[in-house]
Structure formats: C-alpha cells, structure tokens
Amino acid sequence: MGRPRTNDETVKERLVVCATEMLATRPRESVTVRAVAAAAEASTTAVYSLFGGKDGLIGAVRDRAVAGLFQELSAVPTSADPLADLYALAVAYRQWGREHSHLYTVLFGGVQSFDPSGEVGASDPMRPHLAAIDRALAASVLTGEATSIALSIWATLHGLVTLELAGALGAATAETAFRSTIHATLRGWTTPAVFRSLRQTESALPPDFA
Question: What is the pTM of this model?
Fold first, then answer.
C-alpha cells in the first residue's frame, strides 16, 4: 500500500480549520506546527508542503477571514439611501463576526498585524463601507473625511462585536446597544440638516424604535 497523500485539499482544509480554532483560543506561542498537525491528524511535512511553514498557515487563515468578511459585506445591496446602506453593512459585519467567531478573533485579535489606517486594497473588507461613505458624502448626507468616518464606524463596530463575542453583553443588551450605538455613530457624522431631520424623526418614534 502506498503512503497516504499529505498535500490534498482535505488535509489542507483540516489544517486551516484546526489552526483557526487554536489561534483563536490559545496563546500564539502554543500554536506550533507540530500541535496543529497533530490536531488535524496530519504530518508536520504537510504543513510545510502545503503552506511553507507556520507563517504561511497563519497567513492562509487570515486570508480566509479577510475573504469571508469581504464577501459578506459585498453582498449587501446598494440602495438610494447611503445611510441605510451603512447601517446594513454594520448588521452584516456583526452577523459575520457572530457566525465566524474564530476567524473574527484571528483577523482582529492580534495574531497578525492589522492596520485600519493602511491603504485599502481591492478585496479589503472596508471597501464596501468606503463606497457607501463616498456616496453619502456626495449626497451631502455625511460630512468629514472618508477615512476618518470609516475608522470611526469600524472602531465602534469592533468594540460592540468584541464585547458580544466575549459574552460581556446579554442577547437583549447586545441588540439594543448595537442599534442605538451604530445609529448614534452614523448620526454624529451627518450634515447639520440631516442631523436635525433624524433627531426630529427619532423624537416622534416610540422608545423601542428610536
């Protein structure tokens, strides 16, 4: 009987899945090639032949996280209301984080450096946000510098999602905090005329809808 293959897609997938879970739940120094290979029931040789080593494997995990979040946000439809689109993007961001908590932790948990102020690439998860912000600026709905607005929204989102994933917020509290905080963040960047209009609309709504 020949030796089992160590470089097929099944083994590759197991290695990525195991590495993702370990990177999200353990200290990084404990995530060794040997430990990941053992968890995936693969050989250490497979890690090197498929990924070139530990750094390549970590890079593959991060690439999967970036691609997944980008795909989720890119699927959000564009409407005639850029402010509503930004809120819909926030909802999609939170949903992806909740459904892929390990990938989210790897992407934003310091496993690899993340520079939210760096240049935005074609598949950067912030690109859909920036596109909606640009539309809002062009329509005089928002005022300010696009990158600063995007960073403000991302920082708010990241804080909310991180607290929720950590179990610091109950389900009802997380839902209410998300809705009110995202609306407040977006409202803070609106032009004076839009701000007044939003406040007037909100003051006419019952408390549960504001």
Answer: 0.84
